[in-house]
Specification:
With about 270 residues, this protein is α/β, with parallel strands linked by helices. The chain contains 13 helices and nine strands. Helix 9 links the parallel strand 6 and strand 7. The mean pLDDT is about 90. It binds ligand C2E and magnesium ion (3 copies). The site of one magnesium ion has 4 residues, from strand 6. One magnesium ion (MG) binds next to strand 6. This is Diguanylate cyclase (GGDEF)-like protein. It comes from Motilibacter rhizosphaerae.
Length: about 270
Amino acid sequence: QRAKERGTGVETFGEGLRRELLERVQLESDLDRDVPDRLEVHYQPVVRTADGRPVSVEALVRWRRDGELLLPGAWLEVAEQTGRIVAVGEAVLRRACADASRLRLPVAVNVSARQLASPGFAELVESLAVPGGVPLVLEVTETAVIADVEGARRLLERVRAAGVRVAMDDFGTGWSSLGMLSRLPVDVLKIDRSFVARVDEPDGRALVETVLLLGTSLGLDVVAEGVETEEQLEVLRSLGCSLVQGFLTGRPQPVERLLAAVADGGATAARGD
Ligand code: C2E
Ligand code: MG
Ligand code: MG
Ligand code: MG
């Protein structure tokens, strides 16, 4: 069909596709060149609403590509589709565990579907989780476990025996968040920021309140993600939410800057990317 359209003025469309394809090929070869050496890890604090103190951090990968710092949204999907995510994930995990001992805070690392199912992942985590050391948290999403829930359950049970905690990320956005919760060993619920964004409206507030109740009655820690305004923080506090993460209380930033922020009492904590 497309061949027939050649020379009929549809070329701009073809050109667009061609450019997209070239960009994709370039992206993949740049990833091969840069992973793992040009990956950086930024950390965003999870803060206690009672006193504003950071209680843990989340590791978030960035790619230093030709001098530009790229957020995961621009490339992580391609890494996931092509399997390069396994090398990305291993690099982040190693870096995060090394930085955790400097930060002296638990570090949460996001784990993708491919990584979770990759051979040797449990051994890698077990080798990095220091017994009695700074706790490691693995963040999984429903999408990451849906293909093989039973396999994910076994793996998470195994690393949990090594002292690793498990967080259910983006909770409430999937098709079966509740189903996942009943089938997987989970320690932390992270309320997706799409709900937090609407916490000052009646519906949003009811949703957040329900997830908080659910989490606390199951004995889980509940973190509200994506808190951007004082108003949201106030409502969350009034609902009894004790842990928040968001641009308001601290942006993702390099480990050195976070250490400096903690040292000067959090005055610079809101800066970052
Ligand atoms: P996530 O795990 O849900 O991480 C939270 C994302 O929300 C981060 O985006 C963070 O910068 C952003 N965020 C935090 N507070 C706020 C806020 O107040 N407002 C808004 N609008 N956004 C906020 P980031 O760093 O771009 O990461 C996006 C996603 O990429 C992550 O979502 C996670 O799913 C994935 N990701 C990041 N690092 C890794 C990694 O090392 N491995 C894997 N597999 N995935 C990762
Ligand atoms: Mg996460
Ligand atoms: Mg999330
Ligand atoms: Mg997310």
